[in-house]
Structure formats: structure tokens, C-alpha cells
Amino acid sequence: MDDASEPVSASKPSPNSPLVGFSVFGPREGFSPQISILVSQLDWMRRVVLSRLQNLTQEDLDWLPRPDGNTIGALLLHLAASETYYQIHTFDGLPWANTSQEIKKRWGPAMKLGDLGRKRVKGHDLPFYVDVLKEVRERTLAELRKRDDHWLMTVDENWFWGPTNNLCKWFHICEHESHHLGQIDLHIKSIKASGVSEGSGSNN
Predict the structure, then answer these.
(1) Helix or strand or coil: residue 164?
(2) Which helix (H) or strand (E) holds 192?
(3) What is the pLDDT of residue 82?
(4) 53-56 contacts: CB < 8 A, separation 24 or more?
């Protein structure tokens, strides 16, 4: 009888895997126990996203799958914008509606996507997007280091989809990234199939 717990392959993990060192979730130095697990998830998901972007050109990043679609570049900036808005809400304690005009000017097109995003988010190379994602994530990690598990479990009774704690809000950032990674993967496949660029990223 087959043992359902047996791994599909007994081969050793690749030392070149981008997930080496990221796949054991648990304690992280400088973070409380539960926040450590959240940080493990955020780090793992971000590592997967970055692994898909290798060798993408500016042309790839600006490619539209259809007239009403979103580019890979816009999706990447959307990830950074969403994380920024959740920082403002959960770390700075500002209601969603009280976002400053400065933040709206910088992040509004990427947050909303659609026509505004198609007009404004283009013309950037891959290092631009990677640097923005890194900048935003560094603030997230710095703020999470200041907080404890009590804060993480604190419930917002008035959140728009119902009572929600900070853990769920930040897990949403993680699953939101996974959602858009699926779109990015499809874009890369389409780019390769159409011959838009010879250097399109990894799609493992």
C-alpha cells in the first residue's frame, strides 16, 4: 500500500533554489513568536515573486495582455502600494479615508490600477520595481519589530469585511501577493509565447 506521506521525489533539494533558507517558518530574530511566523510567510512569498522576475526587460514590464489589463510593472507597484496603505492603517493608526494627498499622489495610480495605472505606471526597468518593493518591505519589518503578539491579535471591530485582527490584515498582504503572482506568471507565459522579449523571466 502506498504511503500518502511519502514525498513524490526522493531527490535532494537544489542548492540553487531561491527558497533555501526561507522555507522553515518559525522564530526570527528581533520578532515576537507569532509575528515571526507572519514574517516567515511574508519573506517566503516575496522570495517567490522575485524569483519569477529574472531577466525581465522594460518592454516585458510594460507589456499589456489586453487593452483593459495591467502590466507586470503595474502589478509589482500595486503590491508595494497595497503594503504602504496597510502600513498607514495598522502602524500609523490612520483610517483608510484619511490617507494624505502626498501618499495618494505617489501610490494612487498603482493602488487603483485600471486606466490611471496604465497611463502612469510605465517606463521603468526591473531594478526600479525591486527597489520600491524593498523600500516598502523594510519599513514593514522595522515596524513589526516594535510590536508584540498582543498587537498582532488585536481585533478591529469596524473593518469593512467584519471583525478582523492585525494578523489577518497582514496575512491578506501575503495572499494578495500570491494572487497577483498568478497573474504575473500568466503574463510571462504570454510574453514568451508572443515573442515580445527574448529575456523573459523564470517561470518555475
Answers:
(1) strand
(2) helix 166-194
(3) 96
(4) 53/126, 53/129, 53/130, 53/184, 53/201, 53/202, 54/201, 54/202, 55/199, 55/200, 55/201, 55/202, 56/126, 56/188, 56/197, 56/199, 56/200, 56/201
Residue 11 lies in a domain: no
Side chain identity at residue 84, one-letter code: T
- The CATH number of the domain holding residue 131 is 1.20.120.450
pLDDT band at 2 (very low <50, low <70, confident <90, very high): very low
User: Does residue 71 form part of some domain?
Assistant: yes
For residue 3, CA distances in Å to 6, 7, 12, 58, 89 come to 6, 9, 19, 48, 47
Q: The whole model's pTM is what?
A: 0.86
- What are the percentages of helix, strand and coil residues in the chain, rounded to 5? 60, 0, 40
Whether residue 124 lies inside any domain: the answer is yes
Q: How many domains does the chain divide into? A: 1
Taking only the tens place, the pLDDT of each residue in 113-159 is 989 889 999 999 999 999 999 999 999 999 999 999 999 999 999 99
Q: Which domain holds residue 156?
A: 57-193
> Helix 72-90 vs helix 101-112: angle between axes, to the nearest 10 degrees?
140
Closest CA to 55 of 202, 192, 157: 202
Q: Looking at the domain assignment, is residue 10 inside a domain?
A: no
